[in-house]
Request: fold
Amino acid sequence: MKPSIIFSSLLIIFLIFTATATISGYTFKAITPNFSATYLEFIDDSGTFLISPNGTFKAAIFNPGSQQTSFYLCIIHVASRTITWSANRGRAVSSSGQMNLTVKGITISDESGRNNPVWSTPPLRSQVGRLVLTDMGNLLLLDPSNVSLWESFRYPTDTIIIGQSLPVGSSLSSSSSDSDLSIGSYNLTITSSDAILQWLGQTYWKLSMDTKAYRNSLSMVEYMAVNRTGFYLFGSNGTVAVFLVGLPESNFRVATLDNSGHFVIKSFSSGTGWKQEFQGPDDGCGTPLVCGRVGLCNDDDTSSSSSSSSSSSLPVCSCPQNFHVGSGNSGGCVPSNGSYSFPYSCDGSNNDSYHNNNQSNSSSSVVSFLNLGNGLDYFHNIYTDPVMDSVDLSLCQDQCSKNCSCLGVFYRNSSGSCYVIENELGSILSSNDGANQDMFGFIKVSIGSTTTNDDTRDVEDGGGGFPVVAAVLLPITGFALLMAFLFFLWRRSIKISKRKQDLELGKPNNNYSHSSGDLDAFYIPGGGGGHNSSSSSTSGLLYFPLLALEKHEEGNYMDLADPRLEGRVTNEEVEKLVRIALCCVHEEPALRPNMAAVVGMLEGGMPLPQPKMESLNFLRFYGRRFTEASMIIEENNDNEGGRREVNNNSSSSMTSGGSQAALVSYISSQTVSGPR
Ligand SMILES: *[C@@H]1O[C@H](CO)[C@@H](O)[C@H](O)[C@H]1NC(C)=O
Ligand SMILES: *[C@@H]1O[C@H](CO)[C@@H](O)[C@H](O)[C@H]1NC(C)=O
Ligand SMILES: *[C@@H]1O[C@H](CO)[C@@H](O)[C@H](O)[C@H]1NC(C)=O
Ligand SMILES: *[C@@H]1O[C@H](CO)[C@@H](O)[C@H](O)[C@H]1NC(C)=O
Ligand SMILES: *[C@@H]1O[C@H](CO)[C@@H](O)[C@H](O)[C@H]1NC(C)=O
Ligand SMILES: *[C@@H]1O[C@H](CO)[C@@H](O)[C@H](O)[C@H]1NC(C)=O
Ligand SMILES: *[C@@H]1O[C@H](CO)[C@@H](O)[C@H](O)[C@H]1NC(C)=O
Ligand SMILES: *[C@@H]1O[C@H](CO)[C@@H](O)[C@H](O)[C@H]1NC(C)=O
Ligand SMILES: *[C@@H]1O[C@H](CO)[C@@H](O)[C@H](O)[C@H]1NC(C)=O
Ligand SMILES: *[C@@H]1O[C@H](CO)[C@@H](O)[C@H](O)[C@H]1NC(C)=O
Ligand SMILES: *[C@@H]1O[C@H](CO)[C@@H](O)[C@H](O)[C@H]1NC(C)=O
Ligand SMILES: *[C@@H]1O[C@H](CO)[C@@H](O)[C@H](O)[C@H]1NC(C)=O
Reply:
């Protein structure tokens, strides 16, 4: 039987691979030294040079997110196109980067430094006989008598899969983004009693405190694993499950720390796609940067329980008092008074240390604290003890002023407890339920308008209490219109060129108008349609531009096309539209193509643009919350009773009635944007 018959149900890319690979004579099941591979050599197979015996996994020199600058040696689950492991995640190579297999192991090097590999396997006990990729997704170096010398399963990146385990003391580290696999700022670490999520050293979740995990034993934890029926922290050499989460049976399941900081367990089946089974933290405000730096996150489940009881509440972001929305890529809030700026942390992690090594001495006199108000909390406080108890606020602040690694304090009035924020500022939690009424937050600022990380564009944006939601309106309405418009233009250009061809061939103008309904060709989830279709959505609803961005990063454009179109558009056609449309919503207007360029790209005369992720990240920041904002507007229109009276005094919240007029007026001024 030919391999292509066996695999015929798999992806087209894979089919192409088997064809070409058969021609070029590589075996799929093992590679022996001396072997080398580059992306360009295997470009027809998206860089794939090795495939597991039954085709479930492949190894490739791969560029996630279709960008053209960063290539990684990856193991990919073929059916779901999921990267389960990458070798050189910290140091990407270019498209000419090379993977070499010698008897000493694997090296990856860039063209400029062939003798200076960016990544290599550690020194091995004996010479390599073969490189194999198993059907479980494990890449193995075997010696000539088939003894394992090295295996990728022992070096997890951000994901573990069935068959793999994460031992105590080791961690998963998130990737920076879907297209940049370098190490991001979130960590999942296994300790002898727990699994802990941290952001730059600040804890924001523990498995032991998650109500969905069942504690089965008090034994010491030895490793974390998933199998076909559950997720476990095992102890006593795998004989006891210390913690367990039972899950429906599935053949492919990943436990992954995603780049938003969520620890997610999900399963995949080719029929139904991804199904998310577990998420920690699960509440909308649970991740450290959900509302950006110093953004105030309110998931408000007390007031929504009366009507819409959606399973996990969606967060609403605003800025606390004395702060307003910053404009930089980082999102989040900056001091309203331009004379204040965030001090640089002396912690080396963000490499600003050179700025103020002597800050504790020289500038302690010019720091101040901005009051965020009360009824607040910080995620780390829940998992840590206060640095001092029974002190008064001024002592708490003094302590922070003196220490350059301290960026803010939280102070509980009733107990005199002093908590500090170190290294980096995350989002602030706000609760309306009264539980934290006596918790006050203060953020340390330097006085004197030094250059801050967030640039000074606030002024031209209108400054003041610019509501977060305004920035969202262009994407949601504009983007859908834009896609429809581009699709229309593209159809026309096809018709025209088709007619030209027909004329040249002397054919009659057979009417090419099977497409009266083509304008609804794109499926627009978000407004309520797409609950179960969005694969990587973390909080259920996604709106279209964000979905388009995610699909772009996955390279999986067909998900965006209307299923009713089946077969009438190709992935490349949808890709073209999505890439152009994404470029048209770049945050910087100067980076958007002009109309002539758009037409040129649609007709194929101009090369397709590569959307700039830096300019699109704002979609991620706002994406999950637009739906929430629009739901609130509807809700308020429906029952004018004014049930909702949130954030009465403390902030420039976008849910407060007053900002809605502003909000509507922003729609009209922003939606006209698009191509320049
Ligand atoms: C692989 O290359 C090394 C160095 O170029 C050479 O010494 C060795 O004989 C080669 N091995 C095989 C199996 O071709
Ligand atoms: C990789 O292999 C190629 C061809 O076998 C060789 O020219 C190149 O020098 C090798 N690179 C390294 C880093 O060993
Ligand atoms: C391939 O092998 C794996 C592991 O043995 C198995 O779970 C999977 O079902 C197999 N896939 C196919 C398509 O045969
Ligand atoms: C190693 O495994 C391969 C494939 O299973 C087999 O063909 C080969 O005979 C084995 N070699 C030894 C020394 O066992
Ligand atoms: C994540 O954990 C690894 C291993 O413990 C550590 O080297 C790394 O610094 C941690 N990263 C962050 C951002 O905490
Ligand atoms: C998964 O692991 C648990 C705990 O060891 C075990 O009881 C269960 O049978 C395993 N499931 C499968 C499908 O192997
Ligand atoms: C755990 O089990 C493995 C095999 O199942 C055994 O080799 C090992 O010695 C055991 N370790 C301990 C600490 O019991
Ligand atoms: C901003 O802060 C400076 C320094 O504390 C103060 O002098 C100034 O009045 C403040 N400006 C406003 C508008 O509050
Ligand atoms: C940190 O910044 C300094 C000064 O710009 C620079 O020399 C140094 O290489 C940077 N270190 C890292 C690890 O980026
Ligand atoms: C910090 O201050 C000390 C003494 O005041 C000085 O010797 C040192 O060079 C300063 N360091 C930096 C990085 O400015
Ligand atoms: C640093 O602090 C010491 C003691 O607090 C003080 O005597 C000295 O003048 C300070 N130096 C500067 C440059 O402010
Ligand atoms: C600054 O604060 C951190 C954390 O609270 C602490 O570890 C460190 O020792 C403090 N440094 C000084 C100079 O007090």
The chain is about 20% helix and 25% strand. The chain has four domains: 20-147, 159-282, 315-466, 486-673. The longest helix spans residues 470-504.
